[in-house]
């Protein structure tokens, strides 16, 4: 499989990790769109949110739990943050491995193009 995020999970591509457990990895976006811009991914490869199966729902819940913890640790939980999932080509998804963008650390204006070109 030639998935960028799977290669980050396996360690063949370096990342600036901010969170990791058995199921989830989170790392800083290399082209941040906000002072805090973290990508939260499952270690299991799932291409899009539309591909999440019933048995994957606990994994998606674990991603949300990780987002809460990361937001607290990075100091944006109280002031606010945005959690974004791009699903499919019209949304701007370019990396076909489900993930959330956690953005914060500033007043975020109207939603602008948060595409995976920031990944």
Automatic annotation (TrEMBL):
Query: Which ranges carry the HIT domain?
Result: 4-113
One Pfam family name from the record? DcpS_C
* PROSITE patterns (UniProt xref): HIT_2
Organism equals Paenibacillus cookii
User: Which stretches are transmembrane?
Assistant: none
Q: Which intervals of this chain are the motif Histidine triad motif?
A: 97-101
| SUPFAM superfamilies per UniProt | HIT-like
Q: Which Gene3D superfamilies does UniProt cross-reference here?
A: HIT-like
Q: What is this protein called?
A: Histidine triad nucleotide-binding protein
